[in-house]
């Protein structure tokens, strides 16, 4: 798990996002390119050669576009989250700033997940610098708490090792839209 605010996202997340985007874009680009290729048939171009060329182009182009989009999206998320933390806005303010990038539903899930991550990681780093070695995981203790987090409520882990949960060892969030938080264990 990332240990400071600048490294809030892990590479596996963005690799998965890129794969989803490629999977969504590739058929659309392929269909558009094939329409253009069909128009070329009238001029005597061999269809099987056009098809191979179209597929090669789509794969290369999709990879390039996905890399640019994920970089732009990550930068937009970083800017929105940093501005929100600096300005001290409400969760609704953050969601509203993310909606143009992600849409309403996804913006809400990302806002909750990434603020949970930012505060858990940032607080853990500050506490560690102050000599705190262990933290306790807390849930919101309501009907929405999931099995992953419910089992972690009030458990203690070292800041160095983090908690062991289905998402892997680390700090909250335990999953998308996680609302859990940590507190220092001071003895």
Q: What does this protein look like?
A:
The longest helix has 41 residues. The N terminus is likely disordered. The protein is elongated and about 65 Å long. With 187 residues, it is mainly alpha-helical. The protein has two domains: 84 residues, no CATH class; 81 residues, no CATH class. A three-stranded antiparallel sheet has the order 2-1-3, covered by helices on one side. Helix 1 runs antiparallel to helix 2, helix 2 packs antiparallel against helix 3 and helix 3 packs across helix 4.
Mean pLDDT: 78
What is the topology, as strand order, of the major beta sheet?
2-1-3
Rounded Rg: 22 Å
Number of domains: 2
User: Which class of secondary structure composition applies to the elements?
Assistant: mainly alpha
Topology, element by element:
Elements: H1 11-41, H2 47-87, H3 91-102, H4 104-129, E1 134-138, H5 147-150, E2 156-158, E3 181-185
Antiparallel strand pairs: 1-2, 1-3
Helix pairs in contact: 1-2, 2-3, 3-4
Task: Provide a concise account of the structure shown.
With about 190 residues, the chain is mostly helical. The chain has five helices and three strands.
